[in-house]
Each structure stands twice: as structure tokens, then as C-alpha cells.
Amino acid sequence: MIDVTLENFETEVIAASHQVPVLVDFWAPWCGPCKTLGPLLEKVEADYGGRFKLVKIDSDQEQQLAQAFGIRSIPTCVLMINGKPADGFMGAVPESKLKEFLDKHVPSEEVLEADADVEDAQALAEAGDPRAALQKLHEALTLNPGNDDARYDYVKLLIENDMIEDAEAALAPTLAYIPKQQRFEALAQFLDAIKFVLTDDKGLWTPAHFDEVIATNKRDFDTRLAKARVLMVGGDWTGAMDELLEIIMRDKAWNNEVPRKTFVAILELLTPPKPKADPAAAGKTAGGIEVLGKVVAEQDPQAQLVASYRRKLSMALN
Questions:
Q1: 265, 227, 230: which is closest to 246 by C-alpha?
Q2: Which of these, 140, 232, 272, 287, has the minimum number of CB atoms within 10 Å of its CB?
Q3: How far apart are CA 91 and CA 38, in angstroms?
Q4: Is 34 a catalytic residue?
Q5: In 3D, which of 219, 157, 167, 214 has the Cα closest to residue 189?
Q6: What does the pLDDT look like over 182-193, one tens digit per residue?
């Protein structure tokens, strides 16, 4: 439990809530129910073993903070997640209700362990040990089958290591999602391209061979799509998108829009991962507390490439 003032609010609440949920207890020394709730909150914080952080704000001493959160009575507890209020309750509640409230928002021990496995896997993959990374991701999915981030990384790493059948099996549950997630649709399109290259005679064609055939009939969309898939699997992403654009500009609806879907899949696969939330980002929290510092959003070359081809697709479709 930490006592919070205006001076340390940004660090102990805003920044901390990007790492772990922070429960803010607004209280006052003269408040009877606060004296009942306070020790219970501290007990539950210990019981949860670091799965959330408890801070206390004396609403009499820190009236600016209390006003910013619209506190009208005490005790009032506000749960902060990613710098914003996510939920809250007023009054002294029994332990069972408190845990029921927390369990709606605080990750379970299994989820935290799975998240740790994902972080370990990312480090192992970057260190050049894909086998160990795959094992960690498999462990994460065993602990939490609903961890979509782990599943995405797992399928992608399987594909990168030519374990195509395993990748298809791991991806299959996500294709039944409603609505479907674009990133999993992208992996499905990539797998389709790989299977085409492995099973179709055109998978062995050279770019020059493709160009020779296409030169005789610029509306030979089957050959253009085959070329795009070969380029895609070979890592020539821009070449693949350029070929797909040629089809889209000539016939947007051809072959159930497979060229457009493949193009969108490539954009998804090329899109850099979102950076982790920066606690020092400029702006205000939902409670109206000014957050100090600025973040200059600068796109890297990969993001600029994706943005450029998104515009090209938009122009081709309009």
C-alpha cells in the first residue's frame, strides 16, 4: 500500500497502471467505514500477490485529486488500468464482494504466467533459439488457450520454421472467431500461399517465366496471382503487392476478391507491432489529471511502407 499525493500521482498511479491494475482508495482519517475497508484492502492486496497495486489518497489533503475523480463520498475505490479509470465502487464492502470486483479485471495467476512465457519466447526468438521459443509459447497456450497474442506468435514462428501442418492446426481455432481477427486471417492467407508454392507447378517458376506468360495476356489473373504468391513466400512483399494491385485495378471482384484479401493480409503481416503504452505520453487521463511529458510519434520505414501501400489499395478500390 502506498500513500499518493499530487506530486507522486503520475508515477505511482498513471505510470504504474500501464504495468499492473492500480486500485485507488479515496479515504479520510475521520471516516468510519474507511477504517473498516482499509485493512481489508491491504489484506486482499497481500492475498493477490502483486496481481494489483493498492494506493491510498487522503481526500481531505488531496482535494485536487478527489475533485478530478469526481469523488462525492468516501470510501470510494477506483481501479486504474492503462492510465484510465476502468471501474470502481463506493462504501465498505465485504471481502467476497471485493474479490468478486477485482476478479473481473485483475489477471489470474495462470494468465500472468502465460504472459511471462510469451515475453520469454520473444527474447528466445530474438536470441536465435526458435525451438525454445516455440516451447515457451506452447506452454503459454496450455496455461491460457485464449491468449491470442501467444497464439499469433506461435503460428507465425511455426510458419517461419517450415512447420506448416503444426501451424495450420494451431491456427484453426481462430478461424471460427466471430468476428474474425484480421491478423489470423492474414496468417491463413500466408499459409494458402505457402501451400500453393509447395503443391502447384507454378511454385517453381521464375519471375521471368511469369512475366513472359503475363506479357501475352495482361488479364491472366491466375498467373498474376500465382506470381504474387511466389513473391510473397519468397519475401518480396512489395513485388507481391504490386502484382496484386494489377489484378485489383482491372477486376476488383475477381475470384471472390482473393487478390484484395491477399493484399490486406500482406499489409497486416508487415504492420509493425504497436509499441507498449508510454506512461509519459502527453494528454489527460479520463479523470482529468494532466500527464506530463510528450511522445513524438515518428513512423519507422516499415510503417511508412505499409501506409503507402494502404493508400495505393484505397485508390485502386475507388
A1: 227
A2: 272
A3: 11
A4: yes
A5: 167
A6: 999 999 999 999
Residue 207 CA to residue 48 CA, distance in Å, equals 59
pLDDT of residue 288: 39
Q: Find out whether 5 and 60 touch, Cβ atoms under 8 Å.
A: no
**Which are the contacts of 312, defined by CB distance < 8 A and separation ≥ 6?**
241, 245
Q: Which three cell numbers stand for residue 318?
A: 475507388
Q: Which three cell numbers stand for residue 212?
A: 513472359
What would the grid cell of residue 8 be? 507522486
* CA nearest neighbour of 202 among 220, 183, 223, 218: 223
- The span from the CA of 95 to the CA of 274, in Å, is 38
DSSP one-letter string for 265-279:
HHHHHHSPPPPPP-T
Catalytic choice (4, 22, 31, 121): 31
pLDDT confidence band for 275 (50 / 70 / 90): low
From 34, 134, 232, 241, active-site residue: 34
* Residue 31 a catalytic site member: yes
Would you say 272 and 230 are in contact if contact means Cβ atoms under 8 Å apart?
no
* Global pTM value: 0.67
Contact 101, 82 (CB under 8 A): no
User: 71 Cβ partners below 8 Å, 6+ apart?
Assistant: 26, 59
Q: Domains in the chain, ordered, with CATH? A: 2-107 (3.40.30.10), 108-170 (1.25.40)
Q: Where are the alpha helices (DSSP H) in 3-108?
A: 9, 32-47, 63-68, 95-103
